[in-house]
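Milestone 3.1: sequence recovery, worked example.
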């Protein structure tokens, strides 16, 4: 994984705010080279370990409700490139045409098995294929849909210097995001105006701390958060 030259970045990303983060990442070229190898190695191990659980989950989804096993959606990754993210389907078929792009607490579109998968983040398992394909990285900013990326400030575009991530310090802090949005009259508007700016503060701070030590901590904190082995306090 290597950074493009500054002049080769998309025009929207070549601004003064993004340049600060670009310079930080340039100081970590060694880890950037190793990061891709680490991603593929860990994702391959995860795929081997999760192969049987994923097969069981696929069967449970088919038995629980009609529709495909996988949910596919257009998301934005490094340099603004659009890719198709994979998740286990946790909502009724065609849920995207029945409500907001974000999911709220007690969303009626969520299936019975879907609620259980979301609780332990098992719906994200298929993203190991996105990592192996190079569309995503293990640790990094969670990918947004294009309509939300169009709302980015100049500084927020810095998060697109690296591939979208499977997990991040932000996703730990906002693992109950659906409960927050469940209280909003307009979930999409609340996400853009309130939740997204707060999440981006975490994402940008992670870029400022970029390196193997920070990413190792996030990896461990994600594991602890999912299994509930300890109560986490996420530092801002």
């Amino acid at each position: 994984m290597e950074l493009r030259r500054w002049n080769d970045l998309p025009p929207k990303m070549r601004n003064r705010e993004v340049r600060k983060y670009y310079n930080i990442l340039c100081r970590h070229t060694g880890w950037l080279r190793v990061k891709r190898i680490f991603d593929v190695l860990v994702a391959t191990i995860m795929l081997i370990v999760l192969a049987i659980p994923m097969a069981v989950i696929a069967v449970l989804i088919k038995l629980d409700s009609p529709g495909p096993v996988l949910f596919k959606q257009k998301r934005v990754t490094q340099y603004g490139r659009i890719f198709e993210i994979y998740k286990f389907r946790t909502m009724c078929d065609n849920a995207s045409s029945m409500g907001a792009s974000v999911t709220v607490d007690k969303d009626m579109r969520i299936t019975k098995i879907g609620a259980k998968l979301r609780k332990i983040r098992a719906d994200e398992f298929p993203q190991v294929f996105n990592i192996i394909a190079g569309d995503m990285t293990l640790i990094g900013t969670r990918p947004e849909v294009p309509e939300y990326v169009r709302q980015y400030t100049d500084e927020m575009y810095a998060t697109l210097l690296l591939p979208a991530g499977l997990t991040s310090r932000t996703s730990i802090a906002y693992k109950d995001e659906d409960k927050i949005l469940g209280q909003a009259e307009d979930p999409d508007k609340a996400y853009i105006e309130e939740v997204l700016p707060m999440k981006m503060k975490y994402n940008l701070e992670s870029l400022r701390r970029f390196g193997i030590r920070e990413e190792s901590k996030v990896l461990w904190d994600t594991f602890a958060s999912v299994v509930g082995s300890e109560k986490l306090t996420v530092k801002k």
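Residues 38 and 129 are 15 Å apart (CA to CA). The chain is about 50% helix and 10% strand.
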